[in-house]
Design goal:
3 helices, 107 residues, transmembrane helix, membrane, mainly alpha, transmembrane
């Protein structure tokens, strides 16, 4: 359950980052079109700029994806270590009794 919660949060972050990059790319294209319409840039320069922007966006997206996957693996490992320690701990007075579903609900 906690894994699905972590995956949902990471999926949401990934979607927000993707939408942000798409929006920035669209804004960049509109800016280039405005400059071309004013005669400030030629068509060839515009195409090269667009290709460069798309390549930069793809590189950035790949780097962010790798970073996100590394963070996800690290968070999952920390959660697994914590949960394992909880399972190994014996509480004589019954002060702490927590199941996986309850843990997910709390966090």
């Amino acid at each position: 359950m906690a894994e699905s919660l972590a995956v949902n949060i990471l999926f949401w972050r990934r979607n927000v980052l993707t939408l942000t990059r798409v929006w920035l790319l669209v804004v960049g294209v509109v800016f280039l079109l405005v400059r071309v319409s004013r005669g400030e840039r030629s068509l060839g320069v515009r195409i090269r700029g667009l290709v460069q922007a798309m390549q930069t966006q793809a590189h950035t997206q790949a780097a962010l994806q790798a970073q996100l996957e590394a963070q996800q693996a690290q968070a999952q490992e920390r959660a697994n270590v914590w949960w394992s320690s909880m399972l190994r701990t014996r509480f004589e007075d019954g002060a702490v009794e927590i199941g996986w579903d309850e843990f997910v609900r709390l966090f």
